[in-house]
Amino acid sequence: MELTGAQALVRSLEQQGVDVVFGLPGGAILPAYDPLRSSSLRHVLVRHEQGAGHAAEGYAWATGRTGVCIATSGPGATNLVTALADAYMDSVPVVAITGQVPSALIGSDAFQEADITGITLPVTKHNELVTRAERIPAAIAEAFHIASTGRPGPVLVDVPKDVLQSTMTWGAGTWPPAMELPGYRLSAGPDAAAVREAARMLRQARRPVLYVGGGVIKAGAHAELLALAELAQAPVTTTLMARGAFPDPHPLALGMPGMHGCYTAVAALQEADLLVALGARFDDRVTGRLADFAPRARVVHADIDPAEIGKNREPDVPIVGDVRATLAGLADSLAAVIAEDGPPDTGAWLRCVADWKRRFPLRYTQEPGGPLKPQHVVERLSALTRGEAVVVAGVGQHQMHAAQHYSFTRPRSWVNSGGLGTMGFAVPAAMGAQVGRPGELVVAIDGDGCFQMTAQELATCAIEHLPIKVLIFNNGFLGMVRQWQELFYEERYSEVELGTAIPDYVKLAEAYGCLGLRCERADDVDAVLEKTLANTDVPTVVDFRVHDREGVFPMVPAGRPNDEITLGPEFSPEEQRAATAREMHAADSREVPAR
Amino acid sequence: MSTHTLSVLVENKPGVLAHVAGLFSRRAFNISSLAVGPTEDERVSRMTIVVDGASTPVEQVAKQLDKLVRVLKVVELDDGAAVERELALIKVRIDPALRGELLEVATVFHTKVVDMSPETVILEATSSPGKLDSLLANLEPYGTCELVRTGRIAMSRGNRTITGRGLATVAEPAAEAV
Predict the structure, then answer these.
(1) Which pLDDT score, from 0 to 100, does residue A521 have?
(2) What pLDDT is attached to residue B162?
């Protein structure tokens, strides 16, 4: 049958199994919006294309399926760039479809023309300018294949208006189309010998740490991770990208590592004799000064992307492949080694780690009549939702407080902008997460600075009946920048004060058709949260007036060794000294073999 | 300077050079030279990329290149086991009295005279990069006034071919969708 390129595009998306697209139409993409009317696809009309991009990301984070966004040429396409760069850094499967000016006008500086394949080249896994309608089915199939397999990432398909308007023949053999990707090869399974070697090292290690990154969630390997950790009796640290991959309440959980990680996680990595890095990339926010990171550890590095192996830290045992297969293989091999040699001897190490946890926990003080602390709000949210909400964050202090204090119990319950650090991520990403997980509790924790960057998507949420909850931690400042100016610029505050009163977030919420609430006292937090969580009619926005002096701690200053971790003002100088010296004290210290 | 030579087979499609060049700029890798042209298979182009090993992690370059969807194969050529060539055109401004002397230098280095005017000579040289550098040093006293070099191309010596496996992985062009 004869179809227009536009019809073929919509048909291909349907055939691909897409259920929802986030977009905003315009001139060049107009032809595609006509067949969309009679399509099975749900289209969520955003208020800004960046919102479409982040919503597609939020959908992908929360479901594991590829998110789709659509925009027109020129400014519509360039508005997607931040979201694509974000998806690229965090390996989020997203397909972006953009209209392009008609082929004959490409290169002529036509109205709303932008070289979007050129612009997005460094921030996409792949992109393509489709030059004829017959190519559309294969271009779409390839885009989804590339976005969702191997190390996932964003793919952009740019379609000129005349290609959408011209016709092609859709026959019995059109779908599934043959993919022409001779240069796209997926890595074979993990090397069995390397896995056995790693298992032997895990058996012999006295101070092992499983350093778990976002790859474990993407591979759906949380069950295998739990099994391996318990078998190896090895503590587990989950990076910002991996919160939820391992249950925080588990005794082997160390919490988050890195610049604002838990002391115990940071110290355990520094003292470890074996790191097993699983779907993690030795990011600078985790390692601190690379040369001083985990100086005593041998390293097993398992990742699906061979280019990550040795990029920052040269491993002793590299394992390239799907991390779920790697984890399963590790558990099998380790079980075999244990059957022969007995269980691993990590008891002293676990006691040492437990002692650090007890002495140097995340600490803050919520005084009953005192200023409201953001950590308190997160902890109450965690308790009231039993760690089962889908929590979405923007970027900054609120993000770190959320990552630190929410007690995650399952994968795909944490959505945030990790690598790129995109302010304004939370509201549209929560929207996408809610679309992907209807009926579930989706709570965005946002800063007042972040919120104002993409708040317009509240209109989309209200109209589309997406009852997200947005908790604004309103301290009237670009809080993380303020914290750095306090610590590293001798309190010379420069352009960080936003003020708490403008806008009036309650009125703003109401103007957008949402429920607006305000909370200023710790005593009211539970009641406000309960009201928020119970409201499933419309989105809810809560203006939490939190303490503007509250910082995020612990902290490792950027570019400094992790050994220079600062516990923060809640700890005494004696405690800081003890933490720095990191006596592997406790009764067990002698049992921990010196290296 | 320790240089490394990478032979890269890529799909002959629009935008591939931009992808490769963009990768180098984004990852702050330094290219010493890049030459690209067709191969015996019209669907495949071959790039020869020379990188400075001191400033650029060659293994990372190869791995990152290999991740590009349009890149079919990346091979690092062994210095000793590869033929490496560059083509140069060199315009020398020369006093007619010294022309004979210049032509002697040209002969020693197996270069051809491809253009001559009363005041200038254009030499064409094809040789290994080292020999070319040596030629240029010898021409220096006469006053080289314009120079263009192609960038290095290279091929393994002996039986080994890059294309053996590389081209085998190139699928036949899929039948046009009907």
Answers:
(1) 97
(2) 87
Least confidently predicted of A7-11, A246-250, A407-411, B161-165: B161-165
Domain ranges for chain B = 3-77, 83-153
Q: Do B69 and A125 touch (CB under 8 A)?
A: yes
Tell me what pLDDT residue A93 has. 98
**B69: nearest CB among A117, A173, A184:** A184
Write out the DSSP string of A151-214. S--EEEEEEEHHHHHSEEE--TTTSSPPP--TT-----SPPHHHHHHHHHHHHH-SSEEEEE-H
Pairwise CA distance, residues B24 & B28, whole Å: 6
Per-residue pLDDT at A587 exceeds 90: no
What letter represents residue B117's amino acid? S
DSSP run (H or E) holding A473? strand A469-474
In angstroms, the CA A7 to CA A503 distance is: 44
Q: Inspect the interface and report whether the beta carbons of B72 and A183 lie closer than 8 Å.
A: yes
Q: Are A205 and A346 in contact (CB under 8 A)?
A: yes
B9-37 burial, b for 16+ CB within 10 Å, e for fewer?
A: bbbbeebbeebbbebbeeeebebbbbbbe
Which pLDDT tens digit goes with each residue over A187-229?
889 999 999 999 999 999 999 999 999 999 999 999 999 999 9
What's the CA gap between B45 and B43, in Å, rounded?
Answer: 7
Q: Which CATH superfamily is domain A374-545 in?
A: Thiamin diphosphate (ThDP)-binding fold, Pyr/PP domains (3.40.50.970)
Q: Do A183 and B171 touch (CB under 8 A)?
A: no
B137 to chain A, minimum CA–CA distance in Å? 39
Instruction: Report chain B residues whose CB lies below 8 A from the CB of A173.
Output: 177-178
Sheet holding A42-45, edge to edge: A42-45, A20-23, A67-71, A94-100, A154-160, A126-129
Dist CA A584 CA A126 (whole Å): 48
Residue in A267, A233, A266 with CA at minimum distance from that of residue A250: A233
Structural contact between residues A95 and A157, judged by C-beta atoms closer than 8 angstroms: yes
Residue A550 pLDDT exceeds 80: yes
ipTM of this predicted complex?
0.89
Share of chain A above pLDDT 70, in %: 98
A contacts of B15 (beta carbons < 8 Å):
117, 121, 129
Q: In order along chain B (178 residues), what is the average pLDDT of each group of 10 residues?
A: 90 92 91 93 95 89 95 91 94 90 92 94 94 92 89 91 55 35
CATH superfamily of B83-153: ACT-like. Chain A, domain 2 (3.30.70.1150)
pLDDT band at A583 (very low <50, low <70, confident <90, very high): low
Q: What is the mean pLDDT of chain A?
A: 96
**Superfamily of A2-169 according to CATH:** Thiamin diphosphate (ThDP)-binding fold, Pyr/PP domains (3.40.50.970)
- Read off the pLDDT of each residue in A79-85 and give the average, rounded to a whole number: 98
Can you tell me the mean pLDDT for A446-469?
Answer: 98
* One-letter amino acid of A98: T
Closest CA to A135 of A112, A116, A155, A158: A158
What the block records as the tokens of A309 is 């192996």
Task: List the one residue out of A406, A414, A408, A413 whose CA is nearest residue A379.
Answer: A406
Digit-coded pLDDT (tens) for A172-184: 999 999 999 999 9
Q: Do B26 and A122 touch (CB under 8 A)?
A: yes
- If one looks up domain A192-359 in CATH, what number appears? 3.40.50.1220
Beta bridge partners of B50: B5, B33
Structural element, H or E, at residue A518: strand A515-519
Q: Count how many pairs of residues, chain A against chain B, have C-beta atoms within 8 Å.
A: 64
Instruction: Tell me what pLDDT residue B2 has.
Output: 81
CA A592 to chain CA centroid, nearest Å: 36
